[in-house]
Amino acid sequence: MTDQLNNGYDVVIIGGGAAGLNGALMLARSRRSVVVVDAGAPRNAPADGVHGLLARDGTSPTELLERGRAEVLGYGGQTLTGEVATATHHDTGFEVTLTDGRTTRARRLLVTTGLTDELPDIPGLRARWGRDVLHCPYCHGWEVRDQAIGVLSGGPMSVHQALLFRQLSDDVTFFAHTLPPSGEQAEQLAARGITVVDDEVTSLEGADDRLTGVRLRDGSLVQRDALVVSPRMVARAAFLAELGLKPVQHPSGMGEHIPADATGRTDVPGVWVAGNVTDPAAQVGAAAAAGAFAAAQINADLVMAETHDAVARHRT
């Protein structure tokens, strides 16, 4: 491993979630030297299971990643536990430096570091995150079907969330908190039978390791079994700054992302992105597919570069 780190790889993949591991699988099967560098802090770790993933629905996030790593290793790919501090240009591609000082080189980079959820600063909320404090109806909605669901207003997608969760339960309450709905939005909520509470939320209450209700500023408690929030999604990409890549606001208003074209290619030649770091709304299946697609583009790019060099040698 040390020799390979020193000598470099065809591709270094930064981030070992679904996008990164599926990208590594594609590249390893194409006989590329590839290493996945991962800090070991997956975004979906608090969740009981991954949903909406064909043939793997309900699989725990830990198990899914363990199986993915085993498949990558089975084809000769490598994995490395660590956090990337910087990525810089090198004469043959890129140099990647980890926070512990280790370095390696790559001809191409695939960044799949995902994002971090910045949650509302409400006492009791973070402790329930990924269990009965949720954000995605497709990831967790079935598990709270027919329950008393609250939706905390906190972003441009909050009303849309309420309408989506209304599909799953007849008992949905919208907490205006500090961002009340517009007139048109209030009409939509009323038309769908969604109760609007105007007071500010001050805390979440629970018992026996489950959510029991939402406490309001006036002291009253609204009983709820689950609460939907809109976290601000922050791309894990600070290490790309020296390459000239910085997160920008996503058009949806959901948070940050690293812009890329449809193949995952960024504005920096040789750097691709896939998964939530560029598409905040991507579920596990979509992220994995994007990682595989970007990896295929990277392999094709390397093939063309190698062919160009081979033609030059052939001519001489």
- Tell me the CATH topology of the largest domain: FAD/NAD(P)-binding domain
Total domain modules: 2
Count of separate DSSP helical elements: 7
The share of residues in extended strands comes to: 25-35%
Q: What would the principal axes of the Cα set say about the shape?
A: elongated
Total beta-strand segments: 19
Structural class: alpha/beta
Low-confidence parts: none
CATH class of the largest domain: Alpha Beta
CATH-derived architecture of the largest domain:
3-Layer(bba) Sandwich
Main sheet specs: 7 strands, mixed
Terminal-residue CA separation: 36 Å
User: What is the H-and-E element order?
Assistant: HEHEHEEEEEEHEHEHEEEEEEEEEH
Helix content: 25-40%
**By CATH's scheme, which homologous superfamily of the largest domain applies?**
FAD/NAD(P)-binding domain
Radius of gyration over C-alpha positions, nearest whole angstrom: 22 Å
Mean pLDDT: 94
What does this structure look like?
This protein is α/β, with parallel strands linked by helices and 316 residues long. The longest helix has 32 residues. The two termini are 36 Å apart. The chain is built from seven helices and 19 strands. The mean pLDDT is 94. α2 packs parallel to α3 and α2 packs parallel to α7. The strands form five sheets. Strands 1, 2, 3, 4, 5, 6 and 19 form a seven-stranded mixed β-sheet that branches. The protein folds into two domains: 200 residues, FAD/NAD(P)-binding domain (3-Layer(bba) Sandwich), CATH 3.50.50; 109 residues, 3-Layer(bba) Sandwich (FAD/NAD(P)-binding domain). The protein is elongated and about 80 Å long. Helices cover 27% and strands 27% of the residues.
